[in-house]
Design a protein that fits this description.
The protein is mostly beta strands. The chain has one domain (30-322). It is built from six helices and 13 strands. The chain has helices spanning 23-29, 32-39, 79-87, 104-115, 117-121, 132-137; strands spanning 48-52, 58-65, 73-75, 95-102, 144-157, 168-183, 186-205, 208-221, 229-240, 252-261, 267-277, 286-296, 312-322. Strands 1, 2, 3, 4, 5, 6, 7, 8, 9, 10, 11, 12 and 13 form a 13-stranded mixed sheet that branches. The two termini are 23 Å apart.
């Protein structure tokens, strides 16, 4: 699973505005973006440190401007507008982001399997073939990584919001690298790197959280037993206290990831995961549960790592707390 920003979210939609909208409504819906950028003219761009903390994905990033232009602000609560504005002009990078990331749960599970095998076996559910450690970490294929992103960065802010916090959107090219690969919670020596194009963002307010990551790229491995692949990944997650638990399309997250061999194009891996969040007013955290599966072909690997039993399917079961 590539680094820099953890996993996926869906769609890019075009937006239109009605010419008969009142001046006040039009000003609030879109031109607010332009007003913010104009208000920043003369303010030099500056480097910024950004943190993300999560039991499944933790990172620290450093935004470095490549020009004197300040980071623009997109003021909108419309996802289509945000996606469109992030993509516009993204071919020419104006920012570099350096990041180091770790996957704590995946790393811990690999450590337990190699250093405490008895504890790891206690995660097995009867004779079902399901291990809770593997279910919690299925889909994570490295314990850590370093990344360099080249593209555009924008601050994200809702209309009438007085601050943007650590809400950013990114569009551009990402180069990631690491020296370990994870197969069934076993660390494998592998100097690997990835190159991808992506659009990613996060909005985090007390009553609303939204994140997305859409990307396409390729991974190359020094270990010949780990086959090189191209992939497409889609991820979207939202949390909004205005919606009830029974509104299934809200307060949920969805992940889709597919791997194809670079030599021949055969699909060798498919990840489908859906999750539900249970927001409770007054709580500072939200219980979440992700359920899905990871299907893999024996052709995903070669040599000593190849699984000659045939295709395998691993259940994904990830209870968590979102803060």
């Amino acid at each position: 699973m590539p680094t820099f920003f953890a996993h996926l979210r869906t769609g890019c939609i075009a937006a239109a505005f009605c010419a008969c909208t009142s001046a006040a409504t039009a000003e609030e819906a879109y031109p607010a973006d332009k007003k913010v950028e104009e208000s920043q003219i003369g303010i030099p761009a500056k480097s910024e440190l950004v943190f993300e903390l999560d039991p499944y994905y933790t990172s620290v990033g450093y935004n470095v401007p490549l020009t004197n232009k300040p980071i623009p602000t997109i003021t909108s609560d419309n996802e289509a507008v945000i996606y469109r504005d992030l993509i516009e002009g993204s071919l020419i990078p104006r920012y570099m982001v350096l990041e180091a990331s770790v996957y704590p749960v995946a790393g811990l599970s690999s450590y337990i399997k190699s250093h405490s095998p008895n504890l790891y076996r206690q995660g097995e559910i009867g004779h079902s073939g399901i291990n809770l450690f593997e279910s919690a970490t299925a889909g994570f294929q490295e314990p850590w990584a370093v990344s360099a992103f080249f593209g555009n960065v924008a601050k994200l802010k809702r209309p009438k919001e007085t601050r943007h916090g650590n809400n950013y959107g990114y569009t551009g090219y990402l180069l990631s690298a690491g020296n370990k690969h994870i197969k069934n919670n076993t660390l494998v020596a592998d100097d690997w790197f990835e190159f991808e194009w992506k659009i990613k963002g996060k909005i985090d307010y007390p009553n609303e959280k939204l994140s997305w990551s859409f990307r396409v790229g390729g991974r190359w491995n020094h270990n010949r037993d780990v086959n090189d692949v191209t992939y497409i990944s889609l991820h979207r997650s939202n949390l909004n206290l205005r919606y009830s638990f029974l509104e299934w399309l809200e307060n949920a997250n969805y992940d889709l990831r597919a791997h194809f061999l670079q030599n021949g194009g055969q699909m060798v891996r498919l990840e489908l995961i859906a999750g539900k969040k249970v927001p409770v007013e007054g709580w500072s955290y939200t219980p979440t549960l992700d359920i899905g599966f990871v299907w893999s072909s024996p052709n995903e690997y070669a040599g000593a790592l190849r699984d000659n039993r045939g295709n395998t399917t691993t259940l994904v079961f990830r209870p968590s707390l979102e803060f």
